[in-house]
Write a structure and sequence with these properties.
- The chain folds into 3 domains: 100 residues, no CATH class; 66 residues, Signal transduction histidine kinase, dimerisation/phosphotransfer (DHp) domain (Helix Hairpins, Orthogonal Bundle), CATH 1.10.287.130; 145 residues, 2-Layer Sandwich (Heat Shock Protein 90), CATH 3.30.565.10.
- The radius of gyration is 38 Å and the shape is elongated.
- The longest helix is centred in the middle third of the chain and has 55 residues.
- Helix 1 runs antiparallel to helix 4.
- Helix content is 64%, strand content 12%.
- About 2% of the residues have low confidence.
- It has a 5-stranded mixed sheet, covered by helices on one side. Strands 1-3 form a two-stranded antiparallel sheet.
- It has 360 residues and is of the alpha+beta class.
Length: 360
């Protein structure tokens, strides 16, 4: 609830309290006057006179003062009752807040005076249930991924140990066989490195608690360096790249985290591109922002996957044994990094053309 809504609610409660106090006080005074001066006037006068005649004459002389005192007493009592009822409303609000934690599935019901609070608390309750279910789902996905990857680690590790043992134990292996075994051991070691990096991503996927350190960086140089790092992966899949950018693109940001974000986009493009195609990266800059487009040609992504592609632990390749299947964290991490820099990222897929747009 923002300050404007909160102020509106406070004013509404205060006005209703004042209205109730005034209304109830007027009604009480009218009833009191009817009882004293109308119905029971003579009986009251006779009772006081028989009790003490001097006191009777004093009451008659100070009748207006006594009526004012009685009015004041009535107003005080009514004010106390109204304020107590208002406090009861606050107790109900506090009880409802406790109920959100204890029984979030149960609807919150408050008095009509607190309808705004009732709606807001029910929204909080629904968001709590949604976030709780989402967190539970993410934890289950994370645990499943760790279990699967722990299992997958055994395969390349066993191969590395096996082939290195052969090279160590067998003294008469021919040169061609030695080269073959070494190449296999190297390939499996690289796969181990990839799986280890994925484990690292899983353990630190939440970037919200990680502060960013902004410095003036040249995104053109950063992208050149990233392309050089991914050159072996491009070669392995017979992919080419085109990098269209100004000579210098200066931006205030965290170079390490932006390198990680752009690296994830390049790696994603490599993994999901058709072989012997071209990956295109376009960079433009204007007075207000920097725009980047990562474009590749690959299999069309179904619409339902496009809506979830930036979710944590969601993989477009749903087969965990696929060579391109990662942890489902790369694009989620990229989105968080871009958001930390005040930017936005989205995907478009027309036919076989896959495009990731970044605005910083």
């Amino acid at each position: 609830m923002d300050n404007k809504e909160f102020s509106k609610l406070k004013n509404s409660i205060a006005i209703k309290c004042i209205f109730k106090i005034i209304l109830y006080s007027i009604l009480a005074m009218i009833i009191l006057k009817i009882i004293i001066d109308g119905i029971y006037n003579e009986q009251i006068a006779k009772s006081i006179s028989s009790f003490n005649r001097s006191f009777y004459f004093w009451c008659m002389a100070h009748k207006m003062l006594l009526m004012e005192i009685m009015h004041l007493i009535i107003i005080t009592i009514i004010t106390y009752i109204v304020i107590r009822n208002s406090n009861n409303n606050m107790v109900k609000v506090i009880s409802a807040m406790d109920g959100i934690l204890k029984e979030p599935e149960k609807d919150i019901k408050l008095s009509s005076d607190l309808l705004i609070l009732e709606n807001r608390l029910n929204n909080i309750r629904i968001n709590l249930i949604t976030n709780k279910n989402k967190a539970k789902e993410e934890t289950e996905k994370k645990n499943d991924l760790i279990m699967y990857m722990a299992h997958d680690l055994k395969t390349p590790l066993t191969s590395v140990i096996g082939y290195l043992s052969l090279l160590n134990d067998e003294k008469d292996i021919s040169k061609p066989m030695q080269e073959k075994y070494i190449k296999i051991a190297l390939d499996k070691s690289l796969r181990l490195e990839e799986l280890t990096n994925q484990f690292f991503d899983i353990t630190r996927y939440d970037l919200h608690e990680t502060p960013i350190t902004k410095n003036k960086i040249d995104l053109s140089i950063l992208l050149d360096q990233l392309i050089d790092e991914f050159y072996p992966m491009l070669q392995a899949r017979d992919l080419k790249y085109v990098l269209n950018k100004p000579e210098h693109v200066y931006f205030e940001g965290d170079g390490d985290k932006l390198a990680r974000a752009f690296g994830n986009l390049i790696k994603n493009a490599i993994n999901y591109s058709y072989q012997c195609t071209t990956i295109e990266i376009n960079v433009t800059q204007n007075e207000d922002n920097v725009n980047l487009v990562f474009r590749n040609k690959g299999e069309k992504i179904p619409e339902y996957k496009l809506d979830k592609i930036f979710e944590k632990f969601y993989r477009a390749d749903e087969s965990r044994t696929s060579s391109t299947g990662g942890t489902g964290l790369g694009l989620a991490i990229t989105k968080e990094i871009i958001s930390l820099h005040g930017g936005k990222i989205w995907i478009e897929n027309e036919g076989e053309l896959i495009e990731f747009y970044v605005e910083l």
